[in-house]
UniProtKB/TrEMBL annotation:
Pfam families: YceG. Functions as a peptidoglycan terminase that cleaves nascent peptidoglycan strands endolytically to terminate their elongation. This is Endolytic murein transglycosylase. It is a single-pass membrane protein. It catalyses: a peptidoglycan chain = a peptidoglycan chain with N-acetyl-1,6-anhydromuramyl-[peptide] at the reducing end + a peptidoglycan chain with N-acetylglucosamine at the non-reducing end. The chain crosses the membrane at residues 58-78. The record marks 288 as: Important for catalytic activity. The gene is mltG.
Length: 419
């Protein structure tokens, strides 16, 4: 049997050398049952042979190199982008060299900012970038007027600014239509400005759908060609011109809320007015009144058509301008010897009660507003007693009307030859 402190057989381990004095330190018996299959290979405690060294691998170094490459690559990308960003800040915006290619007509709209003009120019290919146009505009202190300008595609931004800065370059057909103008007179003005014929515009007016005429106009363009100053494109057709004028009338329609307001007024027999009747009243007011008198004249018209038989009148408007319209004559002054009873027309308000069948001219904003907001008063007559100043007096009964009429007659005899 092995003695105490002696390793079991097979371990091949030598006894440790004894320290001086005879005490060799404790010794231990290691039992094989500590391991599943006996001692493991190269155990430093139980084997004199040193364990094999692990081989150094290149993987760790490779990982470090890869990481460094990624970091350096990131610095390169970020740096490259930063350089591009700085270049973008320093480099001038994209701009065509000019002088341009295909001609285009460019419109500057009311209220357009310099940026809006630049965006519109880029959209149709006139300038290469908005920034190039803005820079050129700021350099020149550009102020641009509304209108159409002859430009070309792919122009240098500075050249575009030079053209827009000069109002002499505006390429538009400018036409002013005065309040009260009739369709026939409007056609003549448009024809003179466009070198077309009045018949071309009369024919265009017949295509009511193309020009946007409302259904309640019943195919009659009279009164719906709104009086204003227009800047038509140089290549506009008669149909397009009339459509623009009807569009402007529709703007007035919305601004004055005609359709809703008409329902609150009476145009005969206790019935609410239609938008067409409002336009008719407005055209009569335009022909007959001025300034503050317009709302009073509107009230006289409504009182007469709604209350026939009151204050000595029988529901006839007896407005000279309607007879002149029926005769194809201009003006709203006294008829002067015309036998009104012989004028056979639905527009003759001496022989037909109530409102005429439609407008007799193009009313402006003020006349429309007066028709929608008549003054309060029990007037049934009015007489313009001074044609020079436009002074008009309003009467609530027939006797008072006769007095004002005599005043007008005296004016014609002593102060005016235009009666």
């Amino acid at each position: 049997m092995p003695g105490a402190g002696t390793p079991p057989p097979g371990y091949g381990r030598q006894e440790p050398p004894q320290r001086p004095g005879g005490y060799g330190g404790p010794t231990y018996q290691q039992h094989p049952s500590f391991f599943d299959d006996g001692p493991r290979e190269h155990d430093p405690y139980f084997d004199d042979e040193p364990p094999p060294r692990r081989k150094r691998r290149f993987g760790g170094c490779l990982a470090v190199l890869v990481a460094m490459a990624v970091v350096l690559g990131g610095f390169y990308v970020v740096g490259d982008r930063a350089i591009d960003y700085v270049k973008d800040l320093v480099a001038p915006p994209a701009d065509y060299p000019g002088p341009g290619t295909d001609p285009v007509s460019f419109e500057v709209h009311e209220g357009d900012s310099v940026s809006a003009v630049g965006r519109n120019l880029k959209e149709i290919g006139v300038v290469e970038s908005v920034d190039a146009f803005i820079d050129a505009a700021n350099t020149e202190g550009l102020t641009v007027q509304v209108g159409f300008y002859p430009l070309k595609k792919q122009m240098k931004a500075a050249d575009v600014v030079e053209i827009l800065a000069n109002p002499d370059n505006i390429d538009t057909i400018n036409v002013t239509i005065t309040e009260g103008s009739r369709a026939k007179a409007i056609y003549k003005v448009l024809a003179e400005k466009t070198k077309k014929k009045p018949a071309d515009f009369k024919k265009a007016a017949e295509d009511t759908e193309a020009i946007g005429l409302p259904d309640y106009a019943k195919g009659n363009v009279e009164g719906y060609l709104f009086p204003a100053t227009y800047a038509f494109p140089p290549d506009a057709t008669p149909t397009e011109m009339l459509a623009m004028m009807v569009d402007r009338w529709e703007q007035a329609l919305g601004d004055n809320d005609i359709e809703a307001r008409a329902k609150q007024l009476k145009c005969g027999g206790g019935k609410a007015c239609t938008p067409e009747q409002i336009m008719t009243v407005a055209s009569l007011v335009e022909a007959e009144g001025r300034g503050d008198d317009m709302a009073k004249i509107a009230r006289v018209i409504y009182n007469r058509v709604e209350n026939p038989g009151t204050a000595g009148q029988a529901g006839f408007l007896q407005i000279d301008a309607t007879v002149n319209y029926a005769l194809g004559k201009s003006g709203s002054t006294e008829l002067g010897g015309v036998n009104v009873q012989s004028v056979d027309s639905p527009y003759n308000t001496y022989t037909n009660k109530g409102l005429p069948p439609g407008p007799i001219g193009a009313p402006g904003d003020k006349a429309i507003q007066a028709a929608l907001n008549p003054a309060e008063g029990a007037w049934y007559y009015y007489v313009t007693v001074n044609l020079k100043t436009g002074e008009t007096k309003f009467a609530k009964n027939y006797d008072q009307f006769l007095k004002f009429k005599a005043e007008y007659k005296n004016y014609c005899e002593t102060e005016s030859k235009s009666c």
